[in-house]
Amino acid sequence: MDGETVDGETVDGVTADDGPPREGDGREPGVDAEGETSRGEYALGVLGALIVLLVLGFLAHQAVVVRDGDPQLSVTSATAEPVDDGWSVPFEVHNSGGTTAEEVQVTGVLERDGEELQEATATIAYVPPRSRQSGALLFSVDPGTGTLQVRPTAYTLP
Prior knowledge:
alpha+beta; four-stranded antiparallel β-sheet; three-stranded antiparallel β-sheet
């Protein structure tokens, strides 16, 4: 039986290192031969604590700094472009607020010499917080011949 291993011991009485600790062999998981925690385990512990602190800091920042508020809508329009039956004025609605705006009404009023020539309205289904949505207003009169004011006129909250 020379060199044969039985339950972690050889026939001549020398203990063999046969892998991970097992129940009843006197060794504890995570502890090296001298009974101390290894440097790698300390490094992983520090890394885990750092990740937890970063997540807690992010959540605290979101709770204190980022506030939900009403939608803050603004509209920018581009130059009118000719289309088949008139003119198209592309626009973009920006919501800088903290809440979604639904059924956003955008109205464009074309005036010349203080007189309203035409009004066009478009509805955007929704504009999420801190995002943009695009659309176009259609006119039968060239918007370049007067003053065009484009603005949001209504919305609903979800």
